Amino acid sequence: MGGGAGVAIALGGGFWKWSQLPVAENPNAPGVEKWVPTVCGQCMGGCGILVRVIDGWAVNIAGNPLHPVNRGTLCPKGIAGLQGLYDPDRIRTPLKRIGKRGEGRWQPIAWDEALSTVTESLKKLRKTGESHRLAVLGGRYRGLMRSLWERFLETFGSPNYIDNQFQWDGATIEGLYLTQGIYSPPAYDFENARYILSFGSDLLESYWSPVQALSAYGQFRRGTPERRGKLVQIEPRLSITGIKADEWLPIQPGGEGLLALGIANMMIKEGLYNKDFVSNFSFGFENWTDVNGKEHLGFKEFVLSEYDPDVVARRTGVPVDSIIRLAREFASNQPSLAMGYRDRPFQQMAVSILNGLAGNIDTSGGILIPRAVPLQSLPPVGKDTTAQKGLQVDRIDGGKKPSLMLQQPYLFARNVISGKPYRPEILFLYYTDPLFSNPNPELFSKALAQIPLIVSFSPYMDDTTSFSDLILPDRIPLERWQDDPVFLNNGFPVLGIRQPVVEPLYQTRATGDVLLHLAKSLGGEIQKAFPWNDFKEILLYGIKGVFDAKRGDTIGLQFEQAWTRLLERGGWAAPSYKTFEEFWKQLQEKGGWWDPIYDFKEWDRVFRTPTKKFEFYAQTLKQIYPTFSSKDLKDLSFFPHWEELKDAGNEKEFPLHLNVFRTMTLTGSRNANQPWLQASVGSYVFERWGTWVEINPETAKGYGIGDGDWVWIESPKGKVKVRARLYKGAMPDVVSIPFGQGHTSGGRWSKGLGENPYRLIDEDLDPLTGYPISKSTRVKIYKA
Amino acid sequence: MRTAFSKGFLMHRWGMVIDLDKCTACQACVVACQAENNVAIIGPEESAKGRTIHWIELIPYIEGEYPHIKARLLPRPCMHCDNPPCTKVCPVYATYINEEGLVGQINHRCIGCRYCTTACPYTVKYFNWYPPDWPKELKGSLNRDVSVRTKGVVEKCTFCSHRLLRAREKAKIEGRDLLPEDYIPACVQACPSGAMYFGDLNDSNSTVSTLSRERRAFRLMEELGTEPKVIYLSEGM
To answer: Do residue A218 and residue A342 come from a single domain?
Structure first.
């Protein structure tokens, strides 16, 4: 029996011991297997995995039983990581564009040549005093790599790190920011909740840490005998979450926030809110007077006058008795949780305040604010005069960021097109594919056309990379060192260690190492800012902070967690390591570190608003952005409120709403090259390897469309040809299309399959997020 | 307690329980199975002809009319019936049931007549229309413990019986009896919500036996008399 069965014991009986992880006497002998712990890189979930390696080949991926994020289990993407590694169409060497941009003609070049090309261009920029014209467009990743990029730009002399992370999914950070002043994801302790009111949250399909969500769901349902959590899903389409929920309430796209306000109204009217929390820990509920003696309306009166269930029922189409019942159920089944999706900020806030009304902030089964992993921050850098001058220039996106919520990529793209204030000379693309994964990708192709040198670090030929001039292929996660700081649903911080499990397959280099190389070649202060030889050294530097923090322990079994917690509560730290060397060795063998304790009632950490309280009235935003207020509402604009969606396209010509959703298998933009995922993407409607549109059977009949017919979906912006799936779980006037397919570049398993619904979406930017408003697109459908 | 086989109580009788109340339809089981068992990659064209191979597959049952819809998503492996219809029609003894209740498939003995694919009411038997084709870049990552099938043979879920062989050998080396927790199929191991259980149905105290006696327990198409050893637990209290 090998490691596979060893792991199996842990899951089957719970008797598994760490010592049973097989260590072969000679792990590299032919035919001998070893299991290497690392962190999955298929999404942002941060699961610990064990990779089975035989004869230098990775042959299987299993969950790491010690890792608290996933405790030995995995989601489909995690297992398919193997196909991400062995994708036959990976980029194998640095490539230089020959022929026109986007034409797809490339010449392999040596690393030395590629790196000197980049170095020369960078040097030239600095020589002409235009260091600010280097821009980095960065996507989603975690840990020290981000610090490294920012450090590089700082010493180089550019303010232009453009953060392209928003993407409509992930935790509802804007809602948290408006109520608790924190702009990072909270932890939802839904394993311990008894009632979940989900306003279109993608709990079971594309939660940011899917395995955590799925295992918590199992616990929520049947973790405690005689107690079964109830889940209500409010959403325009019967999603997987909707199917698994106890109740599905269809609602027009974008109407979720309005329903939340109707429920808040009922909770207040019937006195069903947590009066202790509201009076002691919140601001803006009752009428209040500001420092100038001016009287202000409170949320209570505002919501009672504006969002009567009758009004809300009429506008959302949700029956009034459902609104009343949901309010009562939500209030009486404690602890309860309201979860939304990344809608417009004030709609997110409307959902967030339900948790405030129930008092489920910083409580078991409620919203928790995780502590950060105490990585040591990199030492300050020296800046030469070029760098200092460059950093004083305004950012390309305008730089006037009124609140943390404002996203940069769309403003960046628009300004690049207009050339004001200036255009970048060089653009680095790291972990991002805006030509695929941003709504209205056309805007980005227009912007990119204006940039003379585009360097991509992608290991795959994605849509944006195919539009670049030079590719310096990164190693994929299974081939590189990386830190992965993450947190659990119960708020515990976890640090996963990603390590190479196989020898790199091709002539690739980890982007961290490439940055270090570039810094060296640039010399001077830049070189001095990067005294490390490779990224692994930076990793060791960073985790020194975790060792020094004298908290937590390397990851272990559940009983070890209880022991660590007991000791820490008593003021002791007794980790299983004494020296840093021991710590590092254990990290590599077990896969990570954690601090299995959550400190309740640290209000400074939980409420970072100006009032140091939970805000029903968004002082956080008002103080830094007082000019943000709508004409009608004026001062009341800082309450959670609902505004009619301005639909793109008129109702007559485009009678249907478009709802874009994400699936478990092809969640991100880097999963389509994996056949196992392609072959299981839409099982519930018998769809694989393609894109489909879900349409209500009655609606389809009206258009003469049958199940499996090819149809065009057309918006004012564009059209896509997809397969119609008559789905009873579709609202009559809403059509839904999954995101994840329709790559215009890439390998044999991703290019040219399906369509990308983001091509249908216009950039009607939300004034607060600077990102297109979700669910505001209208479409028409006709037979192809 | 039913003892299907004459060797009596000491023999294991392997079975699976799937709790639909915990299942999230994520399909980790589906992909884990593909990886574990070297299931061939069937591209988009053949897939459109319904030729994908999934030893465990998510089956949708969607009933009712909008907005009152009753939907259920069932992960469906081979049922490893105690009274399997497939074995009875096989002219060459390529599919059979062994004394531990596992319904096996000897790929190299199969003549590709597909009687069994027709006989199986659960449609768990898959035919290889082409020789499996992996790009050379992927070949080394195949599971060494499971043989690759050829063109013209039928394949199916084995409850990862190769894992049982390994577990048994390990127990032998260690000079002890096989413990039920030594052996677990890949799908059960991967399941993130803990919805799948595996074990010995002959042991009346095992988790699977206990769960199989729950009020929520049901089996698919029991009325056919197939006596499936995959037991589902329905949603709700």
So the answer is: yes
